[in-house]
């Protein structure tokens, strides 16, 4: 059963007219950083091209993903339904959210990937090197983007944001979401509940870097709540502002609410690979003083990433968890 509240409602606003910013990373640095800050303020979302991640690295990762999801239910479950990390099927988080999606969710550090590889693949050395290469390349991209954003915001310390995910104890994650075609799923009941692949939410972390194959379904909400379909394009990386970035910028950037519709193509599975850049658990998070200076007061109280993460997991997927951290 799909949670009723997450099914797209007929009366909701949907627009096809908005083209989200596409930022060419090969252009002049100060121009790129200004474009990024504008995109973060206007949408909390943009796409990047000429990102420097080799196609071979992306294709290899997708292939490992498809290979894993093509296994039998029993084989996949043997990875361990390590809550909340490991293999998941339809159930999202710990509080009853459901979607028409299968996923693998892993910590993004080399040691954890190496550990997980042993239970995920018979050829664990190959799985490890493919997933680790992809994760390292996308982490580098995330750091570059965060440094460009810091420059565009005129923050003194260019590493103010990226240092959290460069930290050896960073709690960043890597996720592969698999949205089966109608044909893939046997049960008629599943067909009836089709609508949502992954329900509306914002990401709790700093920044998310999402890649998907050429199958559609991904949507991003504008600030006024209108949903906009993001046309699938395997040449781009999609960049999503997370909740912590909203806090760092004292609300000047808003975390983007996004969702994935269930895959109704009937022909090809949708696969997306997502990197979530997060601080170490013990790191303190608060609006950066240079931003607050211009705005006179902090909108959010200081908290640790661990506290915020625990709160996120205690709530539903679509809940607006940042409201609980506002200064009253
Ligand atoms: C959204 C971003 C990441 O995918 C994730 C998700 C996590 C999960 O799937 O286990 C959460 C969700 C995400 C936000 C609120 C909580 C936690 C499901 C959920 C209901 C891995 C994450 O870090 O937060």
UniProtKB/TrEMBL annotation:
Superkingdom as given in the UniProt entry: Eukaryota
Sorted UniProt keywords: Dioxygenase, Iron, Metal-binding, Oxidoreductase
GO molecular function: gibberellin 2-beta-dioxygenase activity; metal ion binding
EC numbers on record: 1.14.11.13
GO biological process: gibberellin metabolic process
InterPro entries assigned: DIOX_N (IPR026992), IPNS-like_FE2OG_OXY (IPR044861), IPNS-like_sf (IPR027443), Iron_ascorbate_oxido_reductase (IPR050231), Oxoglu/Fe-dep_dioxygenase_dom (IPR005123)
Top class in the EC scheme: oxidoreductase
Domain Fe2OG dioxygenase, first and last residues per copy: 169-279
UniProt-listed SUPFAM superfamilies: Clavaminate synthase-like
PROSITE patterns: FE2OG_OXY
Catalytic activity: gibberellin A1 + 2-oxoglutarate + O2 = gibberellin A8 + succinate + CO2
Family of this protein: Belongs to the iron/ascorbate-dependent oxidoreductase family. GA2OX subfamily.
Protein name: gibberellin 2beta-dioxygenase
